[in-house]
Structures are given as C-alpha cells and as structure tokens.
Design brief:
The complex is a heterodimer of chains A (about 250) and B (about 350). Chain A is α/β, with parallel strands linked by helices and about 250 residues long. Chain A is built from nine helices and nine strands. In chain B, strand 9, helix 9 and strand 10 form a beta-alpha-beta unit. The chains are: A alpha/beta (about 250), B alpha/beta (about 350).
C-alpha cells in the first residue's frame, strides 16, 4: 500500500489549539513538510511570536526561541549571525510584523539577513480578541473599529510585503493564501522557495500568507475561506511580489 | 586609552563574538571600537542596529545561539532596552549591557550623571527580576569589570549591567589588560543551534499556568540569593579610624576620594565606602562600619537614589546626610570637601575625643 498522506516528522504529535477554520495549523503543517523534504530539521531554529501562535513551539519539532512582540527579525538576526549554519525562520502575525515590528523587519530585510519570514496576515489581532490590525480592511468591523475602519481616522490597510520588496536585501517575497487546496499547494511551493533562498545564502525571504480567522471575523469557516478570495485578496493580491533569486549568486 | 575603547578591547579579549549597538552620546567610542576591531574578525559579528530595541533583541538571539554577546548605550537608549533585558532575565540568558549614563530625565544632557541607579538596580523592565550591576570608577576597572561581567553572566545565567557614565567612558587613562580570551568558552547547555542528535528544545517564558511561572520566579529568586551571598563587592578607603564615612559609587567615589585626601590633609578623619556591585548592594559590609562611626555622608550625581539602599542597610544605627548634584553637573573635589568640612564641624566630629 502506498502512503499518500502522513504527519510530517518535524510536526509534533499534538492536537492544535487553533480554532476551526483558522489558517495557522495549515501554515504550520506546510512549513514542517518543507523542513522534512529539505532535510533541515536538525539545523532549523524557529522564532515564534506572541499571539495565537505563541505555542508554535509545542507543534514544531525543531529548536524554538520565543521572541518579544515585533522583535522576531532582530532575534533571528542574532541567531543567524551567531550561527550561520543554522536555518532560521520567524513566524509572525500582522500586528507583529506590520505594526510593532516594522522597523526590525524592514531593516533585517535591507541588511539582506539570510533568514526566512513566514508572515500570517489575518487582518486582525487574533489572540487579544480581534482588534484592528494594520492590515484590517477598510470598513471592516473589529473591536477597536466598532464603526468600521475609516481611512480618515484609522488609515489604510498596509501592504507591508510590497514595502519590504523595495529593500535591496530582500530577494524573494510572495503572497499566498491557505483557503483552498490549489492555494495551499502554491503556498507550500512559496515556503519551500523562501527556505531555499536562505540555504543558498541569497538574502531575506518572506512569504505572506492570507489566513482566515473565522472567530474574530465572526464568520463560519466556509464563509471566512470565501472572504479571503472575495474581499481580502482584492486588497492584498496573491502572487510573487519580488523574486531576484535567479539573478543572485550565492556568496 | 579611553574608557569606552577599553571596554571594547576587554570584551573582545573576554571572547565576546557579537556586538550590537546604536549611536548615542557618550558611548559612541565603544560602538566605533567594535566596528573597527570586531566586525571583520572571523566568526564575529558587529551590527549597527536600527534601534536600541533591535540591538538588545539581537543580543538575545545571539545568546540563544550560545555565544558571548553584548550591547551598549546611554541612559535614554537603556530605557529602550528594558523590554529585551526583561526577556533575557526571564529566559536565563547571559548578556552584557553597558550603560554610559548621562543626565536625565528625558533626552536630558550628554554630560555624565548617575541618575540611572534605580533603573539599573530595580529591574528597569517589567517583572520580578534582578540584574547584576557593576560600577567601575576608573578605566582600568572598566576593562577588569568587562571581563568579570562576562564571567558572572555565564556563571549565573543572568544579564549583567556595567553602569559607567559619560565621564569615565570618555576619559583617557593607562590600562592593562590582565585577561586573555579563554581558549574554551563555557559551554551553554541550553543553547539552540539546531536539534542535531538530541530532542528539540525551547527557550520561552510564556506559560498559561501561574503555578509554573511561580516556580520559575522562585528559581530565579534562589539564584539571586546565591549571587548576593557570593558576589557582593565593595571597596573601603581610610575607614579604619574614620569619624565620617562618605558613601559613593562610580565616578562620584573617585571625586569623593580626592576630597577625602584633602580632608585628611586638613586633619579630618574621613573615609570612603564604595559599593562596586550596586546590585547586590553590599549592605552587610556597610553595616559593619557602624562599629567605626555613626556618621555617613551619601554623595551621588543625582538627587538621591542609592541613599535608599544606604538607609536600608544602616537603618537607625547611623545618621545619614546627603549631597547630590543632578542633571549632568559634575561636582568638584573641592565642593565635596566643603560639604565634608561643614558636616564635620556641625556634628562636632573635630572636637570629639
């Protein structure tokens, strides 16, 4: 009999605490599949964030070091510079990477730090109860935009990946989603490429994952998965934002 | 050699492999020294970070990876580092943090001050933790204490703060480097470099179980008790027959020493007690001096911060006077001598048998 689906080796045998329909567990699994396929479990060090994924270290069977909110890129920089043989990735949400950690992220990218960022964009602060994130869409109701996000008062959803792509040290940036089998397959390819860029010593790589948050969006899982396509992907278009991995030689 | 450069050289000799900095006066010579002497060393890293917050978090990352790492700044920048210092303390990660302090609060001035005593000795960041604080008063001590800071940090797995000031950092003095880089650095058994031939590990502080966090706090507390027992240090100077003892740390102690020499020349029996570890504060050593005299003068370049520890140490067993110069104003030995002289006469110490 041929095995077509099994638990990745680098994913611990543990039940996810995530809500039904949440994209975190899919993203976790994809990263673990990539780590297994690349054979890098024994040299990978992950940097999980505060937020819903704070317990990521209970799922990834690799070395993991907690980071303060927003500081993932700086912690990963220290880890990678002190031990260049390690494969270092950060796992960060939108409040983390696109608000409090903007400076750390932009500058790590600009220095061309050889790290991989997995950026989960679900347009809200999840664990704290669904407050407005920098990526919250216009008119979207959250607990801190009870009248809907009004650009005049609360600004616009920020396209941080496009901003990071402007730095010369960023070599690969792609936006993907995990709301359908086709998107999940694409997401995995992007994650693999982002790790490969690091292994090849090319520079900073980031995969932004549009991830449903049915609990805070006040939707059913199915509604939330549709909303990613119908609303979110209109503001945050899927696809490769920057890829110069083919032009760059490993140093 | 300048004090700032001496720290840099001593750090490299102590096996510091990673330095992360950010420009702020009056500690820039240290960052520049590391850029010149560490950045191109094989296996070493120098980064001028985008902020003090990033720099301390890079230190955190490097410490997780198991190498000796340091950062430096001055008062306003040290405020920004407090988040990272709290995480380092919570995760039991070694790190050396240099504060070449300046006048505050706010942006303050770039002149030397001692107004970060509370911040250094009371935790500074959030949570129930301590950092060892070393207070040098000469360039030679900056070099020696840098070595000691790395050793203590590795021994107890706590962040160590070197609390200097803008004056000591920028003055030039001869310095002898007594310690060479250790051939083998201490192995950090908890470092994360990839789970090769062992189960994967986690370095974290968050827990949803208060009982677990209470145990972590108890474990830290027990270590702090051990540090208090083993590592408390102080210097005494001419205290054996003193009728008045000046208590001062860092550069203020050095200024006080000049004043005490003159006081002795004028026939006044004055001595100096200088805490070298500000935390742990040498309370017992200070209390022993009440056998010699009951008159103490606390002198600080702030409006009285260490004096709290002096009061806690001496209780009602002594009278404690205070002379402070805040805001980056540096008192001269003659000004301190004037205070000593006035106090000496007021207390009738000159007529005492």
């Amino acid at each position: 009999m041929k095995t077509v689906y099994t638990r990745p080796k680098s994913l611990k045998k543990r039940v996810f605490h995530y809500c039904p329909g949440c994209g975190h567990s899919i993203a976790h699994r994809l990263i673990c599949e990539v780590i297994d396929e690349m054979g890098i479990q024994d040299k990978t060090v992950g940097v999980p964030p505060p937020g819903c994924a704070v317990f990521a270290y209970h799922y990834f069977d690799v070395d993991m070091a907690e980071s303060a909110h927003g500081r993932g890129a700086a912690v990963a920089t220290g880890l990678k510079r002190a031990n260049p043989e390690a494969i270092v990735f950060t796992y960060q949400g939108d409040g983390d990477l696109a608000a409090i950690g903007t400076a750390e992220t932009i500058h790590a990218a600009n220095r061309g730090e050889k790290i991989t960022a997995i950026f989960i964009n679900n347009a809200v602060y999840g664990m704290t109860g669904g407050q407005m994130a920098p990526t919250t869409l216009q008119q979207m109701v959250t607990t801190t935009t009870p009248y809907g996000r009004d650009a005049k008062l609360e600004g616009y959803p920020i396209r941080i990946s496009e901003m990071i792509a402007l730095t010369k040290g960023a070599v690969y940036i792609e936006r993907v989603a995990v709301n359908s089998p086709a998107h999940i397959i694409k997401a995995k390819k992007a994650i693999r490429k982002a790790f490969q860029a690091q292994i090849d010593g090319l520079g900073y790589a980031l995969v932004e994952i549009l991830s449903p948050c049915p609990t805070n969006w006040k939707m059913t899982p199915v509604e939330s998965w549709k909303w990613v396509d119908e609303v979110m992907a209109k503001e945050f278009p899927l696809g490769v934002i920057k890829d110069i991995t083919g032009d760059k030689n490993a140093d | 050699m300048s004090g700032n450069a001496a720290i840099g050289e001593a750090a490299i000799r102590a096996g510091c492999q990673c330095y992360f900095g950010y420009p702020i006066t009056p500690q820039n010579e240290l960052t520049e020294y590391m850029a010149l002497h560490l950045s191109r060393r094989p296996g070493c890293t120098f980064i001028q970070a985008e902020s003090e917050i990033s720099a301390i978090n890079m230190v955190y990352g490097a410490s997780v990876a198991g190498v000796r790492a340091m950062t430096s700044s001055s008062s306003p920048g040290i405020s920004l580092k407090q988040e990272g210092i709290s995480y380092l303390a919570a995760c039991e990660l070694p790190a050396v943090i240099v504060n070449m302090s300046r006048g505050g609060p706010g942006l303050g001035s770039i002149s030397a001050a001692q107004s970060d005593y509370y911040q250094s000795t009371r935790g500074g960041g959030h949570g129930d933790y301590r950092t060892i604080v070393l207070a040098p008063s000469s360039v030679q001590e900056l070099a020696d204490f840098t070595h000691r800071a790395f050793e203590l940090s590795d021994k107890y797995l706590v962040p160590v703060i070197i609390l200097g000031d803008g004056m000591i950092g920028q003055m030039m003095e001869p310095v002898e480097f007594k310690h060479e880089a250790p051939a083998v650095l201490p192995i950090r058994s908890r470092s994360l470099r990839g789970a090769k031939d062992r189960p994967s590990r986690i370095i974290k502080t968050f827990t949803s179980n208060p009982a677990e966090l209470e145990e972590i706090n108890w474990s830290l507390y027990r270590r702090y008790q051990l540090i208090e027992k083993e590592e408390t240090t102080a210097e005494t100077y001419m205290t054996d027959d003193a009728r008045l003892i000046v208590v001062a740390f860092g550069i203020a102690a050095r200024i006080a020493k000049g004043a005490i020499k003159s006081a002795r020349d004028n026939g006044m029996k004055v001595g100096l007690f200088r805490p070298i570890t500000l935390w742990p504060f040498p309370s017992k050593k200070l209390l022993e001096l009440v056998k010699v005299t009951h008159h103490f003068l606390d002198f600080e370049m702030n409006m009285g911060q260490m004096i709290d520890d002096v009061h806690l140490s001496l209780g009602d067993k002594a009278t404690i006077s205070f002379y402070g110069r805040p805001g980056g104003v540096i008192a001269t030995p003659s000004e301190v001598l004037r205070v000593i002289t006035r106090l000496y006469h007021q207390k009738g110490l000159d007529t005492k048998k």
